[in-house]
Amino acid sequence: MQDQEIAISHLGVYYRNLEALRDINVKIQPGRLTGIIGPNGAGKSTLMKGMLGLIPVTQGTVTYQERPFASQLEKVAYVPQRSQIDWTYPATVWDVVMMGRVRQTGWFRRFSAYSRRMGLEALERVDMDAYIKRPIGELSGGQQQRVFLARSLAQDAEIFLFDEPFVGVDQKTENILFSIFRELVANGKIVLVVNHDLGESITHFDDLILLNKEVIAAGKRQFVLKENYLTQAYSGKVAFFKPKAA
């Protein structure tokens, strides 16, 4: 499925006159749950934002299906970090989820019966349909994250990008997130997740991209989670999950 992958080639980013990413070369495959890991300040979120064109890149290319990624953003569902969202904005759960159908519908046009069904089904999948009229700012962190997951599902996208979705969420939400990520990759979607946790949850990922301003290692989880790579990325200051021996 080489022609279905995202290919990042020689990507570089300077942010506020500092080098944030250097010569990034990775490929992200459909049907594989891929995580971006690394220490604070490693450029994990920067890589995702650079892919989306949210910040300028100084060099390199990002392609999907051998075409420029930035020209295909209608195929992408992106969920930013919760800290970047204005939770005081007066929107209900339903309003937020249906934002995922605006691109297909157009601004100031009524949603079709199909779009409304997509929105409701997405809320049911994340167990948030009972909160449909609740203001988004009144929800817990985990509930808010599930609503934004539902919005991404309503988009019916091919590519799903999540920036640190597990921060500040409860175990139920984490379980729902991973369950739906698994459904998406089983259906051949691309799912890329920025993840700060090297605990047991890391075992859910098929592939990993280990960053510290450059790619330290990338590929299958078992290959990336080697002590020498982790020591290099985290300067020896890391404790990570080790599965129990059988």
Descriptive account of the structure:
- The longest helix has 16 residues.
- This protein has a single domain, classed as Rossmann fold (3-Layer(aba) Sandwich), CATH 3.40.50.300.
- Strand 7, helix 6 and strand 8 form a beta-alpha-beta unit.
- The model has no long low-confidence stretch (mean pLDDT 90).
- It has 8 helices and 10 strands.
- Strands 6-7-8-3-9-10 form a 6-stranded mixed sheet, sandwiched between helices. Strands 2-1-4-5 form a 4-stranded antiparallel sheet, with helices on one face.
- 30% of the residues lie in helices and 24% in strands.
- It is globular and about 50 Å long.
- With 246 residues, the protein is an alpha/beta fold.
Q: What's the topology here?
A:
Blueprint: E1 6-15, E2 18-28, E3 33-37, H1 44-52, E4 59-64, E5 67-68, E6 76-79, H2 93-98, H3 102-105, H4 113-125, H5 141-154, E7 159-163, H6 171-186, E8 190-194, E9 207-211, E10 215-220, H7 221-224, H8 227-234
Parallel strand pairs: 3-8, 3-9, 6-7, 7-8
Antiparallel strand pairs: 1-2, 1-4, 4-5, 9-10
Enter the CATH topology name.
Rossmann fold
In total, how many beta strands? 10
Query: Quick one: CATH superfamily?
Result: P-loop containing nucleotide triphosphate hydrolases
Widest beta sheet: strand line-up: 6-7-8-3-9-10
Which class of secondary structure composition applies to the elements?
alpha/beta
**End-to-end distance:** 34 Å
Give me the strand/helix succession: EEEHEEEHHHHEHEEEHH
Task: Provide the β-strand percentage band.
Answer: 15-25%
* CATH architectural label: 3-Layer(aba) Sandwich
Separate helix tally: 8
Instruction: Give the overall form.
Output: globular
Low-confidence sequence ranges: none
**CATH top-level class:** Alpha Beta
Give the proportion of residues in helices. Answer: 25-40%
> Overall pLDDT, averaged?
90
Tally of distinct domains: 1
Radius of gyration: 18 Å
Major beta sheet summary: 6 strands, mixed
Give me the oligomer status.
single chain
